[in-house]
Design goal:
heterodimer; A: alpha/beta; Rossmann fold; eight-stranded mixed beta sheet; 11 helices; 8 strands; disordered N terminus; B: alpha+beta; Alpha-Beta Plaits; five-stranded mixed beta sheet
Chain lengths: ~260, ~240
């Protein structure tokens, strides 16, 4: 359609204030949904400390980002096809030393991201949670940022803390919000409203431009999600018709707009 | 293989002697029965993981506990605090009063530290005059207070020395601490390094003090939380 009109290599960071809110689940299934729309998508496991994209996708990578960082293999060899029609660059689990942001990690991550971005329509950075320097740096490499939160109070407080830091430190004026595990329809929008209200009052007044939190969708709590995760399969593949799958298709459409 | 088949070839005198000598109770039950042998193995394991001088966990046990905690914290996101504690001017104690007194000081500090911890905490002697504590599920807001309590407990302790305990010695400790980064897979080595940096800071700032690494601040005020959760719109959904 208007694919030609778009700039390739749009980088989207998927992050969260708190761990365990389904960040990697969202990244993987969103990538599959975007791939179905015809986009060339790469998911980069930027959660260097706690990589689990390979677990979610049931991949057993022999070559990981670690080998690229250490110069053992060229970047091309580390890019793997994932079920769901997109590509992945996995961090593997031997990367504990990258849980601290050293100038080397900084340079290596930046080089990899800059190298892969032009080859894809969209690159998703599945980052770690929280506001550690590694996470903030990974997010800083992205054009767009999506915060994943659940309605649970700790998750919302941490999501707010992350949004606040991104607005003040990175001068973000636009942040996407996805609310995962909602128990009733409409909950996500209400949560966005709540967050926006606090942002308007306590964050935007200190910024040159007000911060707009864009609601990109809500994913309902769905037994199929648990089942797909246990099977280590993409939800989009094993239960394409379920409510959570359809919600993610909707999120992909909204992002691709 | 049933336990009875192994009986004739088992020589346990040395093991039993070792336990007796170390003041560890012998396992209950019928000697050479399977529960008795299990008890014997458990007692030996327990003994081998203890520092003989202070009775605290030894450095191997400490490393195991630390690795376990790193794994847990990475995914559960629970805050956990690591403290490294070093006795100030310990060499001077040894040089002035001799090694026997040095040992008394080590035992007294170990006792003081053991008295301030909770059952799930690990306290270990990891080097000559260096101790370490792992405090799982310790809220960041309490970190400084916990470390300070350790320091004070040692400072207030009079260590009786001399043949008939007529003299008393007072020692102080420097404490360095770091919280495990939440939601991040770190390594035990990195965690120790971060706590050690704080210990050096405490030493450099004049000793007898506790320094903790400052975690990244996400200052969400009470008013912000109030506005986030306080309005009726949100409560309707609860």
């Amino acid at each position: 359609m208007n694919q030609e009109a778009k700039m390739p290599g749009r980088i989207l960071a998927v992050t969260s204030g708190k761990g365990g809110v389904g960040k990697t689940f969202v990244s993987a299934n969103l990538a599959a949904a975007l791939a179905r729309r015809g986009e060339r998508v790469l998911v980069l496991d930027a959660d260097l400390g706690l990589a689990n994209l390979d677990v979610v996708l049931n991949l057993f990578p022999k070559i990981t980002l670690h080998d690229v960082f250490t110069g053992k293999v060229p970047l091309e060899q580390a890019i793997l096809p994932a079920p769901g029609g997109f590509s992945v660059l996995l961090a593997g689990s031997g990367m504990v030393e990258y849980s601290r942001l050293t100038p080397e990690v900084r340079d290596q991550l930046q080089t990899v991201v800059e190298n892969v971005a032009p080859r894809y329509d969209r690159v998703l950075l599945d980052t770690g949670a929280g506001i550690s320097d590694v996470v903030l740096y990974a997010v800083s490499l992205a054009h767009d940022v999506m915060v994943v939160a659940t309605p649970e109070p700790t998750s919302l407080t941490d999501a707010y803390a992350t949004i606040k830091v991104l607005a003040t430190q990175q001068r973000r004026t636009h942040i996407q919000l996805l609310v995962n595990q909602v128990s009733r329809a409409g909950e996500g929008r209400v949560i966005r409203g709540q967050l926006q209200q606090v942002i308007d009052r306590y964050v935007s007044n200190a910024l040159p431009e007000p911060l707009k939190l864009e609601f990109v969708g809500e994913v309902p709590t769905d037994g199929a999600v648990r089942e797909a995760i246990q099977k280590r399969q993409l939800l989009m593949d094993c239960f394409p018709g379920c409510a959570a799958s359809q919600a993610l298709v909707g999120v992909a459409a909204k992002i691709a707009e | 293989m049933p336990a009875s088949a192994a009986q004739p070839s088992l020589r346990l005198e040395a093991a039993l002697q070792l336990l007796q000598h170390s003041g560890v109770a012998l396992p209950p039950g019928e000697p050479m029965s399977q529960p008795w042998l299990q008890g014997l193995v458990d007692a030996l394991c327990e003994l081998s993981s203890r520092d003989p001088l202070t009775g605290l966990a030894d450095s191997r046990q400490f490393e195991l506990a630390l690795a376990r905690e790193v794994d847990r914290v990475a995914r559960a996101g629970e805050p956990a605090l690591l403290l490294v504690i070093d006795i100030d001017h310990f060499k001077a104690v040894n040089d002035t009063y001799g090694h026997a007194v040095g040992d008394q000081v080590l035992r007294a500090v170990a006792r003081a530290l053991s008295e301030t911890i909770r059952p799930m905490d690990t306290v270990a002697r990891i080097g000559g005059e260096e101790f370490a504590l792992i405090l799982p599920n310790c809220a960041p807001a309490f970190g400084q207070a916990v470390a300070e309590r350790m320091r004070q407990r040692v400072e207030r302790r009079m260590v009786p020395i001399g043949v008939d305990n007529q003299q008393a010695l007072r020692v102080t400790v420097s404490v360095g601490g770091a919280f495990a980064p939440q939601w991040v897979r770190s390594s035990a080595a990195l965690w120790i390094e971060r706590a050690d940096i704080q210990l050096y800071r405490a030493k450099n700032e004049g000793r007898n003090r506790a320094c903790l690494e400052q975690p990244p601040v996400s200052d969400v005020s009470a008013e912000e939380k109030g506005l986030l959760f306080g309005t009726s719109q949100f409560q309707d959904l609860q």
